[in-house]
Amino acid sequence: MNVQHVEVNLGKVCNNRCRFCMTTEADRPVFAPKENVVREIEKYAKMGYVSLGFLGGEPTIYPGIAGMIRHARESGFMEVHIVSNGRRYADREFLESLLDAGVTRFSVSIHSHLPEVEDYLTRVQGGFEQKLEGLANLMEFRTQGRIRDNIALNIVVTKKNYSELPTTIMFFRKMGFSEFRFNFMRPEGRALSNMDDLFVSYTEFQPVLSKIIRMRLALGVGISLEGVPFCVAMRSGAEHFVGEIHDHINMVVSFNDLDESGKSIKETFLWKERRAESKVKAPLCRKCIYFDKCEGIYKEYSERAGFKELEPVVR
Predict the structure, then answer these.
(1) With 90 as the cut, is the pLDDT of residue 288 above it?
(2) What is the Cβ-side half-sphere exposure of residue 267, based on CA atoms within 13 angstroms?
(3) Which pLDDT band holds residue 287 (cuts at 50, 70, 90)?
(4) Which residues pair with 141 in a beta bridge?
(5) Which domains does the chain have, with CATH numbers?
(6) Is the peptide bond before 102 cis (omega within 30 degrees of 0)?
(7) In the chain, at which residue ranges do the beta strands (DSSP E only) sit?
(8) Residue in 4, 5, 21 with CA at minimum distance from that of residue 256
(9) Quick one: DSSP state of residue 208?
(10) Residue 35, class by beta-carbon neighbours within 10 Å (0-12 exposed, 13-18 middle, 19+ buried)?
(11) pTM
(12) What percent of the chain clears pLDDT 90, i.e. is strictly above it?
């Protein structure tokens, strides 16, 4: 197994309060200590890793984030990826500081083209307008050649936004974006508490996914899916876009929690393995030709909807 990408979680501190977040209201969000982050950057650079990602929480509000990016590039990382809600990119000067520091790729979480839906999901009034301005700045810099790699948009699929997703794609495609990631909601933390409000089933999502697959070539967009099993994706002609195929094997270093003394706890794991641990398969899945590749469905999804939507692929 060749792992060359490491992601450092800078802590749970965030400037959004998303209803589908995996954190809870009771969590004590803290930033990862600077010296810990520096140590991990240098450690993985010496181990030969060439790609680094910064996660959160919200990494753009991490104190000294531009300096961390610069240190990563100076340590030998050829690629630096930042995963953000994008609100701070409305500040052109701040965004330029990240580009000058050496960011090569951006992923932005935005879940609707409708302000009222986006702001409802993130619980930040006016957040959509900030994100839209930030995305416009990103695309301008991308057009100028200042962003080397592509800009991906991450969308969490919920009851509030799923039916309009084809229109959402067209809206952002007109802005110049061409890479979309659809994440089925992971039922943990606030997401679990808000299941009645946000839960959407595979059966409901399937005709929408079919439409997305039909329109993707005409629009010239790339898509990927997370949390959608092969058999469900296949019914929409989307089996080639599931995360189990496309996702890289990433090492994750997290400093999300504190021990009783208030010291930051470090946790290291392979993201694909951690994700698979939160999923289950039905007994009938053993008959499926994708059994070894497919991660299954989230445990909490199975507890709510059962396995009736799953059907083994036997051809």
Answers:
(1) yes
(2) 14
(3) very high
(4) none
(5) 5-200+247-277 (3.20.20.70)
(6) no
(7) 5-9, 51-55, 79-84, 105-109, 151-157, 179-184, 222-226, 250-258, 264-270, 279-280, 297-298
(8) 21
(9) H
(10) exposed
(11) 0.93
(12) 83
